[in-house]
Write a structure and sequence with these properties.
By secondary structure, this protein is an all-alpha fold. The protein contains five helices and no strands. It has helices spanning about 1-15, 35-55, 70-95, 105-130, 135-160. Helix 2 (about 35-55) runs antiparallel to helix 3 (about 70-95), helix 3 (about 70-95) packs antiparallel against helix 4 and helix 4 (about 105-130) runs antiparallel to helix 5. The longest helix has 27 residues, at about 105-130. The protein starts with a helix and ends in an 8-residue tail after the last helix.
């Protein structure tokens, strides 16, 4: 707000113009996507992430018992699972970068919040696996499953076919 006031005063006094980089040219604001464009782009992001995750062959498994594994078994699994979750994280940031139309902004924001919750829970599960903590791993996996289920429902409500499958 203070910045807007300063700019307004400067403009009134004529001493200042909005600066733009000569090399980059003037800044332009892109309009939001249409709902159909949003759906298509979101589904492309989700499909690409799901394909890359499937190629890695590593997924969080709720049946794992971390304490039953030797550290030498857990460590490479932690590294692989972290890479797999990083694929989901990249997709999340790709989704966040989309310019969402106003008519679906609230639902899309709720979907992104659920996707973020899933990432946090997945990180917690990986940390618990690394420590060999069965109880923490099981609790985190419940949170992962819950967030995945909610995100699937939200994706369907938004019309995201591919995103509802991940």
């Amino acid at each position: 707000m203070a910045c807007a006031v300063v700019l307004a005063i400067a403009a009134l006094l004529g001493g200042c113009q909005r600066s733009t980089s000569v090399e980059a040219g003037p800044t332009t604001t892109r309009p939001p996507l249409t709902v159909d464009e949003l759906t298509a782009r979101a589904d492309r992001i989700c499909l690409a992430a799901r394909t890359r995750a499937a190629e890695s062959g590593v997924v969080l498994d709720p049946a794992l018992v971390p304490s039953a594994m030797e550290e030498s078994e857990r460590t490479p699994l932690v590294v692989s699972l972290t890479a797999s979750v990083d694929i989901d994280r990249a997709a999340y940031y790709g989704l966040r970068a989309l310019r969402v139309p106003d008519e679906v902004a609230d639902r899309f924001d709720a979907y992104l919040e659920t996707k973020r919750d899933r990432l946090v829970a997945a990180d917690d599960a990986i940390a618990a696996l690394a420590l060999g903590d069965d109880a923490a791993y099981a609790a985190a996996m419940v949170d992962v499953a819950s967030a995945e289920q909610r995100a699937g429902v939200q994706a369907v409500e938004l019309g995201f076919v591919e995103c509802s499958r991940s």
